[in-house]
Amino acid sequence: MRHFHPLKVPVNVHPLVRRLFEEMNREQIGILDMSKRSGVNKNTLNDWKARSNPQIQNLDACFAVLGMELNVRAKRDD
């Protein structure tokens, strides 16, 4: 088993990407492990930190590894 190093959670990215990295830290799953479990290339995961936005199927695959799923709901009126 690999030693876990907490990931820096990107601030200026889409909230779903930020949430993914927060959950990965909580579950102590690094980039390489997430890549192997989800089938999403490790470079793609790293690019989400600053260079690119995820494709929905890749984001969904990563959340599935964490036992989570994407969901659409009506926007609340606040």
Written account of the structure:
It contains four helices and no strands. The chain has helices at residues 15-27, 31-38, 42-47, 56-65. The protein is globular and about 45 Å long. The mean pLDDT is 92.
Helices and strands, in order, run as: HHHH
Please tell me how large the radius of gyration is.
13 Å
Which overall shape is indicated by the principal axes computed on the Cα atoms? globular
Number of helices: 4
How would you classify the helix and strand content by structural class? mainly alpha
Strand content: under 5%
Uncertain residue segments? none
Helix content: 40-55%
Residue-averaged pLDDT: 92
Mind describing the biggest β-sheet?
A: none
* Intertermini distance: 46 Å
Number of strands: 0
Structure summarized in a few sentences:
By secondary structure, this protein is mainly α. The protein has four helices and no strands.
Features:
single chain; 78 residues; mainly alpha; 4 helices
Task: Describe how the helices and strands are arranged.
Elements: H1 15-27, H2 31-38, H3 42-47, H4 56-65
Helix pairs in contact: 2-4
